[in-house]
Amino acid sequence: MKKNSNFFFSEEEKQALKQDIIDSAESVKFKERNTRIKRFLGYAAVACVIGIIATVFYSRIPDANASDIERFVQQSKEEINFKSDQVTILLEENQINLSEDSTEVAYSSKGDQLTLGNGKSIQQKVNSKNKAVFNTIIVPYGKRGKLTLSDGTKVWLNSGSRLVYPLVFSKDKREVYLQGEAIFDVAHNKEKAFKVLSDNQEISVLGTVFNVSVYPGDDAQQTVLKEGSVLVTYKEEKKQLKMAPGDFFEYNTASKKIATRKVDPDVYFSWRDGELTLNRTDLGSIVKKLSRYYNVEIAIKNEDLQNETFSGKLDLKETLEDVLLTIRNTSEFQYEYKNNDTLVINR
């Protein structure tokens, strides 16, 4: 019986058909895989957006355990302009720009009157909607400021600093929030401690004189006690340490380590009088202080030079160039301005 060739395939045709079936199956798998990937990426994108929204939303919710001033600070995290040419006080609804002859300001004992250095007075309500009213003083780079709070506490603020404080303190506590560096001469009140809050630490005193430096850009947060007694709480480490006059406490925000030693407090108070006292201080640290004090970007291009130490006094009432010449008397280096705004130091 003769077979009909129309119903049978040659070996070559069988192989070609088999390959077509395999290719077709692979194509279906590829399309399904692409569909799964696209679906996964879509879910991931939605989850990412939700995560971002949740982060922004919850970051704006104040900590339920925070005090009134901490909640105020958390809700007013706007970028602070430390490059301004004037000391500024932010009031509840407006702001005051202080001229050179009025950077010293004082509040009345009731907190309802603010007197500027030039004699001008400003009236304020100490409560708004049954809540305490907070003011913020911003001292830009190249400037200094002095503030007398309603309880009589005096505060000297260094360049690049911000202090948040109530017009009048509550019946049971005195709290301020500091970013930067300040000297506090705290009015004594044995019934009501005075607290200086910052992002990583809390300082509690009854009446004393101390210097605290808590610049956000610095790894080290420093507290130096001149008179009285201070209790320092390091929030992340959950540690409390008591200071005696002459104590120096330093908290490294990177390593989370606390270092303590005895020092001459006047070294850390000299900036208030227009001097910078050095005691084996490395040039990198000196330059950081000078950059804030004179409002000039300064960069050191030599690592060995950056670690070189110096001792003595610098007169900050002189120009920056004169101060650098004083330092250069004991070290070999050159400096020049780049792009008209950055001073570069090199060998």
UniProtKB/TrEMBL annotation:
<dbReference type="InterPro" id="IPR032508">
    <property type="entry name" value="FecR_C"/>
</dbReference>
<feature type="domain" description="Protein FecR C-terminal">
    <location>
        <begin position="276"/>
        <end position="344"/>
    </location>
</feature>
<protein>
    <submittedName>
        <fullName>FecR family protein</fullName>
    </submittedName>
</protein>
<dbReference type="InterPro" id="IPR012373">
    <property type="entry name" value="Ferrdict_sens_TM"/>
</dbReference>
<keyword id="KW-0812">Transmembrane</keyword>
<feature type="transmembrane region" description="Helical">
    <location>
        <begin position="40"/>
        <end position="58"/>
    </location>
</feature>
<keyword id="KW-0472">Membrane</keyword>
<dbReference type="InterPro" id="IPR006860">
    <property type="entry name" value="FecR"/>
</dbReference>
<dbReference type="GO" id="GO:0016989">
    <property type="term" value="F:sigma factor antagonist activity"/>
</dbReference>
<dbReference type="Pfam" id="PF16344">
    <property type="entry name" value="FecR_C"/>
</dbReference>
<dbReference type="Pfam" id="PF04773">
    <property type="entry name" value="FecR"/>
</dbReference>
<feature type="domain" description="FecR protein">
    <location>
        <begin position="138"/>
        <end position="230"/>
    </location>
</feature>
<keyword id="KW-1133">Transmembrane helix</keyword>
